[in-house]
Design brief:
This protein has about 160 residues and is α/β, with parallel strands linked by helices. It contains 2 helices and 11 strands.
Length: about 160
């Protein structure tokens, strides 16, 4: 890559190549190739601690928490996706999860016995709370989820 840049600069200095006519289209092509083939770049699988922080643009992530005091966090997916697995976590009293999906999707799996309280704005998208509400014991832990779905989706299930 360095050799190609050096050759291009030398040809530009010798007035053999017009750098302005070549450099801008080359940069646009490289960015386009990154968008098309670089979706795997940035995707990851993590075992997080007490909170989750994830931002996905043109990529995806798979996160899981085994925390005994899960406090929540923030998950965003823009033209990408995120899978959050909380089935082995225990909920802290002050937990709150903020979710944003724009032209992407976020899937959250919670353990049986958790109550999920969803507030949000679905704008040309959808927010679905598919947890079993009738099977909850009295005093079940509550996970508040603030969700926004713009041309995307947020799904919460067991």
């Amino acid at each position: 890559m360095i050799v190609l840049i050096g050759v291009a600069l030398l040809l530009g200095t010798l007035d053999i190549l017009d750098l302005g006519a070549v450099l801008v289209p080359a940069i646009i092509i490289v960015i386009g190739l990154f968008i098309i083939f670089g979706r795997g770049i940035g995707s990851r699988t993590d075992d997080t601690g007490d909170s989750i922080q994830s931002f996905n643009a043109f990529s995806g992530s798979e996160l899981a928490s085994n925390s005994t005091r899960f406090r929540g966090g923030s998950v965003s997916a823009v033209f990408g996706g995120a899978e959050i697995d909380l089935r082995n976590a225990s909920l802290a009293l002050d937990a709150q999860l903020d979710v944003f999906a724009a032209f992407g999707a976020v899937e959250i799996r919670v353990p049986d016995g958790w109550q999920v309280s969803v507030k949000g704005l679905p704008l040309f998208g959808g927010i679905e709370n598919a947890t079993a509400k009738e099977k909850l014991p009295p005093g079940a832990p509550v996970l508040p989820v603030n969700a926004t779905a713009l041309f995307g989706g947020v799904e919460i299930k067991h």
